[in-house]
Amino acid sequence: MKKKVVLGLMVGTLTLGIGTGALAATGLEPIKAYLNSKISLKLNGTTVTAKDANGKTVLPITYNGTTYLPVRAVGTLLGTEITYDSATSSVNIGSNNGSVPPSETGKLTLSSLGTAALGTSDWHTKDPAETAYKGKDYKDVYLHTDTAKQGKSFQVMTQKKYAKLHLDLAVLGGSQKLEIMDENNTTLKTVSLAPEDGLIGVDVDVAGTDFIFVEIVDEAPGSSLFVPLTTSYLTKK
After folding, report:
1. Range 94-101 average pLDDT
2. Cβ count within 10 A of residue 81
3. CA-CA distance, 81 to 92, in Å (whole number)?
């Protein structure tokens, strides 16, 4: 029988010097669990290593036949923001600032769809040094910084399955003009962006299209295009 794997918080329980009353006040309950180094993690078939915020490898925990995975480390692997609100003692999965709530039926972020919608692109990055905009880390983005990045466009595969594409877009260092086109090179929308515009949302009707591509048709020297994939999404028909 396969053991059940639960995405849970890996919490180290410190019992020395803490009385029963103190434990009750914090909501902590002592248990006997085991770090399980025999379990490997695979993401889309590729073995990955879960790490904490400091880059240290963390292991699954086995307790009463159930395996618990470190939620922050797994969230990082999946490109999902994990935060802890100490005021409410709650763990937040996904961004609370502009991202699409998981409960919104029919909306699928480009980050969650991954290669099924995006294929591969030289623009794609999850490097924390490149995924932040105005103090917020979007975790998973398309970033076109200069001509060293291959091409001046990216595709989104729609396969006639979606009604609308929502893109969040921002530019840094100079203005840009974008054209959003379908597979027949028909322009669906033209967008002009300036740094002072901030992060803007653009909605495009993609019903009946196999794919669309977003092309930079004009750009100021040194400008960069920033597209957060965790807040850009496709809406099902």
Report:
1. 53
2. 21
3. 8
Helical segments of 49-171, H only: 71-78, 110-113, 115-118
Q: State how far the Cα of 31 lies from the Cα of 48, in Å rounded to an integer.
A: 28
Q: Tokens in use for 167?
A: 């893109």
- Scanning the structure block, which residue is given the tokens 């901030």? 198
CA distance 118 to 233: 11
**pLDDT, tens digit (0-9, with 9 covering 90-100), for 114-171:** 888 998 888 999 999 999 999 999 999 999 987 555 678 999 999 998 999 999 999 9
Query: Rounded to whole angstroms, how far apart are CA atoms 16 and 32?
Result: 14
- Domains (ranges, CATH) in the chain? 5-78 (no CATH), 107-236 (2.60.120.1060)
Whether the predicted model's global pTM rises above the 0.70 cut: no
Does the pLDDT value for residue 214 go beyond 50? Answer: yes
Contact criterion met (CB below 8 Å) for 163 and 210: no
**d(Cα 28, Cα 69) in Å, to the nearest integer?**
18
Amino acid at 99: S
Coil, strand or helix at 193: strand
Q: Rounded distance, CA 130 to CA 142, Å? A: 9
41 DSSP β-pair partners: 48
> What letter does residue 112 receive in the DSSP assignment?
H
> Tens digits of per-residue pLDDT, 218-234?
999 889 999 999 999 99
